[in-house]
Automatic annotation (TrEMBL):
Region entry Disordered, spans: 21-145
Extent of Low complexity compositional bias: 35-47, 101-120
Classification of source organism: Bacteria, Pseudomonadati, Acidobacteriota, Terriglobia, Terriglobales
Protein name: Uncharacterized protein
Domain of life of the organism encoding this protein: Bacteria
Species of provenance: Terriglobus albidus
Assigned keywords, A-Z: Signal
Comp. bias intervals (Gly residues): 48-65
Keyword Signal: yes
The keyword Signal belongs to this UniProt entry's keyword annotation: yes
Signal peptide bounds: 1-21
Length: 145
């Protein structure tokens, strides 16, 4: 009988620590960037788009896991304190936020990956006429014999 009570009292602590670990932020300020002399920033490469999209998918999954753990932790705490309605509410809220975060990250990431892939595939076709000049006259046709 003692084991379930200990397990129920330790579970919220474990999930709370897991959620806190997901939301850790660095206290260091990023180094200042030098001022650019150009008026417009560089466009990201196709590989950069794919990499950024993969990062967005990972960010969405991480945020979703954090919200799910937070909801489960709060729900377990409410269950231990004999508030079953609050427990179900917190678990449902955590699951809903997790689904939203995973969905948003997946859609944004997939869009960036598709954009990068499209740019990589289209590059040979769009830049093939770069060496030809518009002012050049076409070569003379051979006279019929």
């Amino acid at each position: 009988m003692r084991t379930p009570v200990v397990l129920l009292s330790v579970t919220p602590l474990v999930f709370g620590l897991a959620a806190m670990g997901q939301n850790s932020s660095s206290s260091q300020a990023p180094p200042p960037k030098p001022a650019q002399s150009q008026s417009q920033p560089h466009q990201r490469s196709a590989g950069g788009d794919v990499g950024s999209g993969s990062g967005d998918i990972g960010k969405g999954a991480g945020k979703g896991a954090g919200h799910a753990a937070e909801g489960v932790g709060k729900g377990a705490g409410d269950l231990v304190t004999l508030h079953p309605i609050g427990a179900a509410e917190n678990v449902g809220k955590g699951a809903g936020e997790a689904g939203k975060d995973v969905g948003v990250g997946t859609v944004k990431g997939t869009g960036k990956i598709a954009k990068g892939t499209g740019r990589a595939v289209a590059k040979p076709f769009h830049h093939s006429k770069k060496s030809e000049s518009k002012d050049a006259t076409p070569p003379p046709a051979e006279p019929p014999q």
